[in-house]
Amino acid sequence: MLKYYLYLILFGAFASTVSIAQTADSLTLESQRTNSYYQKGLTLHAKSSFFDNEKDTTDLSDEVQVIFKGQHLRCKRATINWRTNTIDASGDVLIVSSKNSIGGSRVILDFETNTGIIYDGFVQSGSVLCEGSTLIKTSDVDFTAEDARYTTC
User: CA nearest 20: which of 57, 48, 53?
Assistant: First the structure.
């Protein structure tokens, strides 16, 4: 059975509307709050979610997907901090874009600057593959690596 919820949350001088639509197998969030993921260009999908008003964070779990700036992130769990514009994703993280694919056990990514840290992961662009214990994403296409392996085959 489908259930639909609509919540109105007041934050000081402004109101926010968060609608949660639950289907048989997913939970999709849409927001129209000032400085929300709607205005920041993020699309979120997860089976479970929790929004913390005081911390201004959203916790997502179970089949998490986040789409932003031409990238598609998939993982098991993610915490989005709306104040710092960061996504802390863990559990089989995979980020796919037209430029490269990024994967790891954990990724902390600033979705505004598109920079971050990949733990126990890889970056692949065409036939070039770099794997390492820590990869630092300094731009859309630039990375530095620690304890890394590199191949073009």
Answer: 48
Residue 15 DSSP class: E
Q: Which two tokens stand for residue 100?
A: 């490269």
DSSP 118: E
Q: How many CB atoms lie within 10 A of CB 72?
A: 14
**DSSP-assigned states of every residue in 80-91:** EETTTTEEEEEE
Instruction: Yes or no: say if 64 and 72 are a contact pair by the CB < 8 Å rule.
Output: no
pTM: 0.75
6 or 138: which leads in pLDDT: 138
Per-residue pLDDT reduced to its tens digit, 81-118: 999 999 999 999 999 999 999 999 999 999 999 999 99
